[in-house]
User: Fold this.
Amino acid sequence: MSRTPIDADFPTRNSRFNARQELRMANLFARIRYREQMHQISLKELSQRRKEIEERLAASEENRLAQKAFQKVLLRQPAVHAEDGSHAGENNGNHLGIARKKKRRRLTSRLDRR
Amino acid sequence: MSSDPIIFLSLAQARSGVLLDRELPRDYFLACRFMHCGVIDRTFSLDQGFSYSILDKIPEPVQPTASFAELCDSTGDDLVAEAVRTRRTIAVLWSGGIDSTSALIAIMKAAEKRGQKRRIQVLLSRESVQEYPRFYLSFINNKYRQRPVSPPIADSLDPALLNVTGELGDQLFGSMILEPYVREGMAGENYEDVLHEVMIDRLGNEARGERLRHYLEPVIDKAPVRIRTLFDYLWWLNFTLKWQAVTLRLLAARRDGSRELYQSLHHFFRSIAFQQWSFYNPRARTTAVWERYKEAAKQYILSYTGDETYYRHKEKEPSLGLVMRKSEDRGSPVRVFMGRDFHPVFSVTNDFGRRDDPEPEPQTDATPEPEVVDV
Assistant:
């Protein structure tokens, strides 16, 4: 029985195996190339890079913690708004989901009472 | 008002080419464009086309004995002593940048020494925290009173408080204009050899550059120290022509600006001693590497925080510029000037009224005008 053109395009078990094999080989070559490149970098340079990455990671973590701490300050004492003297966070905790949470709490307690 | 000497005008006002219905001289217009501010010449050697007065004269060239760190400490001490004497709170505008962090540290040190920590209030925004999160976490949060503010920061100034800013630090050390030239290695060269290139960079063509260079010569001649390199040249212009614009720009951002508000404003680096330090410490302010710009201030911060990473990597940023105006207002010019009553006079502005060059010349080497952040 001759294969239709559609059947010819359909991946056989063999072709899937070949594709996986090709991918494995490509990955392997990439790893080898990467190792070769790494060997060209001096140890000093490597430790310098590592230090920089660690510093960058620490800085982003610090920034996250600082913003979190500042957010608490903002909640207690919203930023003074420009012209009308109102506060940036006044009556609009919505962006933090506060109003939504309060509403849900009210609704839940009402249902509980019933 | 017409006879009242001017003490401040915004860049947009200068760019309009007109002040109080009078044409501004073309050379003056070019100087404003070059310096990116409404120039007020502290050496009194330029024809600005209008009557003006200056707030801070250029001090006598007397060699100071104190180091930068000692000056910071004594200024911080004086400010805390004044706050105690007048029973006022010190509100420090902290942008997270090098200058305002130095000022805040000096005040913190003095307040801790005198047991006056409660007298300090740190005015800060999200941007401030983002610029120096480690300092916020270790030295401000849970230790000092904080007052979150949102741009424009000028609206948060309270005349009843002693408002301290880190303004004028840039004028002591050099200029933000220098950044590309330091990075390209041009800043240390003789200014006469490279100025031509800088003028073309900033003004678009050679003829304007030549004209401005000639106009600014008397200012350079008035320098109490030798102006040799491009770094020296741009520092001196920033020191003499932009000082007053920076002194008053926060005040000019408020419609209700007044003498009372002006008197409550203390720019940390606005002292004779700091200016004299700047004259006689060219090595401390000049740098061949941009990361080392404001080295003395960074060392002062390091000695308090022990933060080597900040010391090694922190670069000057136009941090105050980010909070000077509301984000939606940035980019739209505000025409404003101020007489000796310290009350800003605003005029309606639109971009159609902007005059880029009163007498445009045929451009031989036209390049777009670089966007420089006004700091």
